[in-house]
Every structure is written in C-alpha cells, then in structure tokens.
Amino acid sequence: MTADGALRFAPRLTLLLMAGPVIAGLAGTLRPAFEADGMARLLDWPGLPRAAALSLGTGIASTVLSLAIALGLVAALQGGRLFTLILRLLSPLLAVPHAAAALGLAFLLAPSGWIARALSPWATGWTQPPDLLILNDPAGLALTAGLVLKEVPFLLLILIAALPQADAPRRLMLMASLGYGRVAGWMLAVLPAVWPQMRPAVYAVLAYSMTAVDMAIVLGPALPPTLSAQLVLWMTSPDLSIHPVAAAGALVQLGLVLAALALLRCAETGLARLGCRLALTGRRRVWADRWLGPLAAGGGLLVVLVMAGGMAGLALWSFAGPWVFPDALPERLGLDAWARAAPGLGPAALETLLLAALSAALATGLVLACLEAETRFGLKPGGGALWLLWLPLIMPQVAFLPGLAELGLRSGVEGSTWAVAAAHLVFVLPYVFLSLAAPWRAWDPRFAVAGAALGATPGRIFWRLRLPMLLRAILTAAAVGFAVSVGQYLPTLLIGGGRVTTLTTEAVALSSGGNRRIIGTYAMLQLALPLFAFALALALPAALFRNRAGMRPGA
C-alpha cells in the first residue's frame, strides 16, 4: 500500500478503533444477560429500583445544572472582563481527573473537612466532627455536586468553540436593534444556532453522569449505591455466578441511558416550541439581564472556588502532620506521608505515565493522519462519522467494557499494559480529535499554496509548514488526551483485570479508608501528571521557536 493509500485509509481505521471495541464489547456484555437467569435474579434484587432512580436522578440533575450554568455564563457575560476571568479560571479545571475532583470535594465537605474546621468552634460550637451524613448521602446530592464541578468547564469550552460557527455577534446585534435584552436575545437567536454542535457533548455528559463509577464510589450513596457502582462490584466479584446478573444490570443501565437521552430529545423539541411562542409574543424580557448575570457569575465562581478549595485541601493533607479537629491547619507540614506512600506510589505513577503516553501518542498520530487525509484528498466527514466519534463517550462504559474484558481474557491479553492502553485509546481519540480539528481547519491554506508554488510536495508541506505552525495546538491536543488517559478508572480496572495499577485505581480504592494523607499523595500526583503535560505543551514550542517572532502566541 502506498503512502497516499495508507493516508486515505486512516479515517476508516480511526473510526473502526473507536466504534469496533464498543460494538464488540456490547455484544460480549449482553450475551450473558440472558443466560443463567441473570435478568430474573437482577429483578429480584430489592435495591434495583433505588439504584436505578439514583443513577437517573443524579445524571439528569447534574446535566441540567451544568448546562444551565454554562449557558447562563455565556448568555449573560460573554465579552466582559468577568467572563474572561471566569473562563481563565475554569479552563485549567479540565485537567483535573474526575477521581481527584471527587476526593477534593470529599475532603472539603466531610463532617471533619476543611469547611467544618474553618467554621469551628467559633461559628458552629463543634469540638468534634458532627454526626451528619453529608458525603454518601442517600439522595446523591454530594455526587451531583461533584459531577457539576467537572462538567461545567467541559460544556463551557464546547459552547465557546461552537460560537464562531453561529456568527453570534451579528445575531446579538440584530436582537439588540429589535429591543431585546442580551440574555433573551442570546437564548432566542444564538442558542438555536449553536445547539446542533453542542448536542453530542450534552448527550455525552448525560450518559457519563448517569454511569460514573469512580465519582459514585467516592461521593455516592452506599446502600444501595448507584446502579453503575453496584454493577462494578458484581463484575469484579470472584463469584462467577453473579456475573450474569451484572450483565443483565448493564442492559438495564443501557436502557436507562437511552431513555434519558430520549427524554432529553423530547425536552429539546418542547423547549424549541416554547421559544418560538415566546418570540411571537414580542416581549423583550430585558429584566432577565438584571438577575441572570449575577446568578451565572455566582455559579461559575462557586465552581472555581469549590474546586480550588478541594485541590488545596488535597495538597495540604498530603503534607500534613498531626491535624486534629477543629484546627483549621495542621500542627506542622512534612514529607512523612509521601515517604510512606512511595513504595506503591512510584510504580503506580510509572504505569499511569506509560499508559497515558502510549494512548495519547497513538491518538495524536491517528488524528493527524485523519485531518491530513481530509485536507489532502478533500474528504468531508458526514454526520454519521461525527456521531461515531462521540459513540465511546455516549455509550455507557459499564455496558461494553465487561464484554471487552471477556474478549481480552479469552484472547490472553487481559492484564497487559498494551491491552489497557488500547482500551484507553477508545476514549482518548475523540477528545484529541475534538481538540485539534478546529485549529487544523482554521490554518490559512495560503501557506500551502505558497509552498506548492515553490515546488514543495504535499508531504513536505505537512512536515515543514503545517506541523511546525500547529505544533502548539498539536501538543495541547496530546496533553488533553494524556489527561483523559490519566483519569480512566473503569477501563483500567476491568481490562487490566486488577493487575494493572494506576494512580486513579489506587486513589479510588484508598477512598474507602481513613488515611487522608496517603489519599492526598495519590490524588496530588494524579493531578500533577496532566498539569505537567499541559505545561510541556506550552513550554516546548516556546523553546523551539524562541528566535522566531512570527511563531510566538498571538503573532
């Protein structure tokens, strides 16, 4: 096969690597659901209604709250200094793994957490941690809050990326000329234009929120847990007779997600009709600007403050010496916890680094091949291809990863680093593509025309012009993929068969214990690896192009 032929095949290979494991794993998971009375035994489990309701309720509530905050911030504040500040503060939060965010929130909100310590005893009168069920509450409120903290930055950045395609400034100018307030004008004129680009991301957020396992283990209720958390307990049980029940539960979880997505689709239709009716009334609703702006700003700043407080709490606990309640700060700081954690921390960190580097490098290479094929051969991705891109993010992990793990066991690759890296690749690929596609397509094609006029081949244009000029965007996309891999819990647990240990799996396992110092060390190192990747993505181009003024940011 020639180089051009291989390049033409790259998009098909990439879609196969994303959709193939999902479809094969789904088939492998659902087959046992109808064996050994798995479904009947699941329906006999008394905790099923409560677990299903928790998954549905926390997923829908967190998605609605996250979407409302993201839309409110853009509709009320975009273009102002406060919006720029909030966006700059929220953007780095994307690098925080879900497990680290959950642990940080737990350290903040627990009865003996930092908030209770800061308010005690002068405001609360507490000299001992209160007997309050704040974390792992039966209603899943703590889990909902943790999901909102992670999903607001993601939805906000997806929304910002979609705005240029909607020509938002001219739409807002037109609505303002008609007397509409900023918020009402944005909701009636801009939101309908950006929603088609946002829809897959919102669906992915809803599917993840309903099926999150790592955050549910740390923050969610325990008796019963959410359905996804209970399924993982069954899937990892040494009692093989319970596995058909887990497969049947995965089928129920998939049905719940599909039902929630259908409900969201119906809500879209209903809200679109409501928007048309509101527009036809002719009311300008300027009053919305007065209260939605402060409300949205408050929500965005609250997300930033809670996340920052949680991360600060993790860092402090990892260096804390004796720290009794209700002291707001430890008696002394030291490296004792890091020294005790070092024997397990080092191997887990190296495994995490290797998996993330492998999956991010493979994903970046495949995405570059896809985008170059799109440019060189004029390929245009259709709507079906874009939905396949989102398929691994929308399909519940508990619905197809168990089947994929069974296939790995039968083929003899379960528990290997390469198998886990391949599983991570399924989830890393979409994020790398979404991060790199926009800057790639925005590159000025006149540079390529000038290079071709000087006799450069398409390959030389790719290596000598496009790659150097887009190096910062490429490395940033690779850093995004690196961060996604670091945060993978369920693929590592199931495909690794318990033999591949990463910082994420260890941090979640330790969360059930009481040693906050050791938990803090794992969570901080889990957070440090993605931050190092992003720092490298910024520093490397600056070092390489330090003598080229035109290659600097903003040039």
Note down, in words, how this protein is organized.
With 555 residues, the chain is mainly α. The chain has 2 domains: 1-31 and 335-555, MetI-like fold (Orthogonal Bundle), CATH 1.10.3720; 36-317, MetI-like fold, CATH 1.10.3720. Helix content is 75%, strand content 0%. The protein has helices at residues 3-30, 38-43, 48-77, 81-90, 98-109, 114-119, 141-166, 168-177, 182-211, 214-219, 227-235, 243-281, 288-319, 336-377, 383-394, 397-411, 417-442, 446-453, 458-469, 471-486, 490-495, 503-510, 516-544. Helix 8 (168-177) crosses helix 9 and helix 18 (446-453) packs across helix 19. It is globular and about 70 Å long. The chain starts with a helix and ends in an 11-residue tail after the last helix. The relative contact order is 0.14. The mean pLDDT is 86.
